[in-house]
């Protein structure tokens, strides 16, 4: 029934002509379902409360008698204030409409009116937003993102007409036993209470049910993917040879941490299973993910397969290549570096060796996904800083082999909320401890006015033969401004430290220039490296013992933590100074948190709270679902319950065919999937 009614195209609904249909298209609404489940973005409370019950700064509706003539006065260029006094019971407040002089004709002294606005309690002043019509009074009025396509009245009238249609059958997305368990509304009640709540209690009850519903539907889609990957995607058993792998681990110049040992076992066990591996390896900065990747790669090579490691930048790819070549070449591994800056002749030689199987491990950038790159027997793909690659880019590399195992790595710890949403279809391995002997970095938030202290600390490090990173923020909207910042900082360092070598590194330099600068820094030909965030990930210079980050409040917590992780790579005590004078409370809070917290997992959670779910990595995070009602932070417990419920449903009925309820649910999931593709 649902496919005939809820999923009925709007063009088949009575009284929806071409013009109205075009309006719905502008709002991206194409079916009855789309309209009924597009909820209000907020509710304006037009219930009139007693004045004593209103909090300072609260938006509320006030009903009272106008006791003075409304007066319009100028308040600057093209600005006006319309003011009058309103008597509410025995209290008198001042009401002001800003830049709405035409409202004067609608207000008369002596009449009783209802006004909606923000109340400033200490001043007994109402910053008015609108007059409340009589038919809105003592109601919660929904507010939609209609973009002036429809009026509120016409849009609500259409919803009412749909709900009055006796032929409309609204099937429930959530099975009855789950609704009873979690005390949820059925879909019919939910729709009515979301669009036309009579009380705040109704609206809150509907919101909770709506949040559960959208979390549940999302988790159902996610769990279906997991089911398909686990049981329908046939993998290849890649049984590594234990003796050479054990010999490789014993030959390492250090002992693996317990967390590294655990994660290595998880990865190798996955590769030996007859299903494709989809594993995310997360570890704090400096936790030793590269060693885990090296062991995993060596395991795949001993099983007779090739390995590809893709990194987001040439600097990082070169760093990985140097380290992995040093570790693996003594064990007979032929490893190559493939980047965009190689000559055609160099690339062709690598293409040949990969196609013939002569090279069994290649490290590279996006150059790996080019059509010319072919493998004889690709078995494992490792993607470093995986959030910097699109899904399609990763897939292009995976498609160069048969049933290829995937190990994604990130040094940005994933908050538990995002682990259940954006990364819910991946098995997650976590390195939650630092290698033995590694000391905690001493961090301090300092003001730009404390320049003397900053330079003294830097000089002390330089006298002790250590190197220093000086970081200027990347201002995304203006690369030119960014270059001016880093250039100015570079000149300042030259001026303050004339006896030391100062280098400059930024994103506008060519790959060769960047490599030359980094090589000079690694060889200690440069004492102070002034850089933008191109050194954010992967760069590993053990003698770099201090970082000074200027304008640190331009960065998010996770990005600051990534930058800080470039120092303290050796056994000595390292330092990081965050130079900042933030104006906002959020900026001050961010600086206080980064100064006192070195745990990347704690910082990731805090960053998510401060910046919201869509901007964890310093740019719009792909793959993070945007929910209409549910908030993955505030509604975390509902998210957990919805995930458990989705797993329960699919455990009992993996194909969603056993009951009419599940069959309807399957139809709905297919529809939502088609909407996502569009």
From TrEMBL:
Keywords: ATP-binding, DNA damage, DNA recombination, DNA repair, DNA-binding, Helicase, Hydrolase, Isomerase, Nucleotide-binding. Residues 270-431 form the Helicase ATP-binding domain. One of its GO terms (biological process) is DNA repair. It catalyses: ATP + H2O = ADP + phosphate + H(+); Couples ATP hydrolysis with the unwinding of duplex DNA by translocating in the 3'-5' direction. Gene3D superfamilies: Nucleic acid-binding proteins, P-loop containing nucleotide triphosphate hydrolases. Its EC number is 5.6.2.4. Residues 458-609 form the Helicase C-terminal domain. The keyword rRNA-binding does not apply. One of its GO terms (molecular function) is DNA binding. Plays a critical role in recombination and DNA repair. Helps process Holliday junction intermediates to mature products by catalyzing branch migration. Has replication fork regression activity, unwinds stalled or blocked replication forks to make a HJ that can be resolved. Has a DNA unwinding activity characteristic of a DNA helicase with 3'-5' polarity. Belongs to the helicase family. RecG subfamily. PANTHER family: ATP-DEPENDENT DNA HELICASE HOMOLOG RECG, CHLOROPLASTIC. This is ATP-dependent DNA helicase RecG. The lineage of its organism: Bacteria, Bacillati, Bacillota, Bacilli, Lactobacillales.
């Amino acid at each position: 029934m649902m496919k005939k009614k809820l999923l009925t195209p709007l063009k088949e609904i009575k009284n929806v002509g071409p013009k109205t249909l075009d309006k719905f298209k502008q709002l991206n609404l194409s079916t009855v379902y789309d309209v009924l489940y597009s909820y209000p973005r907020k509710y304006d409370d037009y219930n009139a409360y007693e004045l004593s019950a209103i909090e300072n700064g609260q938006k509320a509706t006030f009903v009272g008698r106008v006791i003075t003539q409304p007066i319009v006065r100028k308040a600057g260029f093209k600005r006006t204030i319309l003011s009058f006094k309103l008597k509410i019971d025995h209290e008198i407040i001042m009401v002001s409409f800003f830049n709405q002089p035409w409202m004067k004709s609608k207000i008369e002294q002596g009449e009783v009116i209802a006004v909606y606005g923000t109340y400033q309690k200490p001043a007994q002043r109402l910053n008015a937003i609108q007059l409340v019509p009589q038919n809105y009074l003592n109601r919660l009025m929904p507010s939609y993102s209609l973009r002036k396509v429809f009026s509120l009245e016409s849009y609500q009238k259409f919803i009412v007409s749909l709900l009055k249609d006796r032929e409309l059958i609204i099937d429930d997305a959530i099975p009855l036993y789950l609704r009873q368990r979690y005390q949820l509304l059925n879909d019919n009640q939910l729709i009515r209470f979301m669009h036309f709540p009579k009380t705040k209690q109704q609206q809150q009850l509907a919101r909770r049910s709506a949040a559960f519903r959208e979390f549940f539907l999302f988790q159902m889609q996610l769990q279906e993917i997991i089911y398909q990957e686990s049981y329908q995607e046939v993998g290849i058993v890649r049984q590594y040879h234990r003796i050479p792998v054990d010999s490789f681990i014993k030959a390492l110049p250090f002992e693996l941490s317990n967390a590294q040992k655990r994660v290595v076992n998880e990865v190798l066990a996955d590769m030996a299973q007859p299903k494709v591996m989809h594993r995310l390896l997360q570890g704090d900065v400096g936790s030793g993910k590269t060693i885990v990747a090296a062991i995993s790669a060596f395991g795949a090579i001993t099983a007779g397969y090739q390995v590809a490691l893709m990194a987001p930048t040439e600097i990082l790819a070169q760093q990985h290549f140097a380290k992995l070549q040093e570790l693996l070449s003594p064990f007979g591994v032929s490893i190559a570096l493939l980047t965009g800056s190689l000559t055609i002749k160099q690339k062709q030689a690598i293409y040949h060796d990969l196609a013939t199987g002569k090279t069994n491990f290649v490290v590279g950038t996006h150059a790996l996904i080019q059509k010319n790159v072919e493998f004889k027997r690709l078995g494992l793909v490792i993607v470093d800083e995986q959030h910097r690659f699109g899904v399609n880019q990763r897939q292009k590399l995976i498609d160069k082999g048969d049933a290829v195992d995937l190990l994604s790595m990130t040094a940005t710890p994933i908050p538990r909320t995002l682990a259940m949403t954006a990364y819910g279809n991946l098995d997650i391995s976590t390195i939650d401890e630092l290698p033995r002997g590694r000391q905690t970095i001493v961090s301090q938030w300092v003001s730009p006015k404390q320049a003397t202290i900053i330079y003294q600390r830097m000089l002390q490090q330089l006298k002790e033969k250590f190197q220093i990173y000086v970081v200027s923020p990347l201002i995304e909207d203006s690369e030119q401004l960014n270059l001016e910042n880093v250039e100015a900082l570079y000149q300042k360092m030259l001026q303050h430290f004339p006896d030391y070598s100062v280098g400059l590194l930024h994103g506008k330099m060519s790959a060769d220039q960047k490599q030359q600068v980094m090589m000079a820094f690694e060889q200690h030909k440069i004492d102070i490296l002034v850089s933008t965030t191109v050194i954010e990930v992967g760069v590993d210079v053990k003698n770099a013992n201090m970082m000074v980050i200027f304008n640190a409040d331009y960065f998010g917590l996770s990005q600051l933590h990534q930058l800080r992780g470039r120092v303290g790579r050796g056994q000595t005590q390292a330092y990081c100074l965050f130079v900042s004078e933030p104006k906002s409370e959020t900026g001050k809070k961010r600086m206080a948190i980064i100064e006192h917290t070195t745990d990347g997992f704690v910082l990731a959670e805090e960053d998510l709270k401060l910046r919201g779910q869509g901007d964890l990595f310093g740019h719009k995070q792909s793959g993070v679902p945007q929910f209409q009602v549910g908030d993955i932070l505030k509604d975390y417990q509902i998210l957990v319950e919805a995930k458990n419920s989705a797993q329960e449903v699919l455990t009992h009925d993996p194909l969603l065919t056993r009951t009419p309820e599940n069959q309807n649910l399957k139809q709905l999931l297919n529809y939502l999937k088609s909407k996502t593709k569009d």
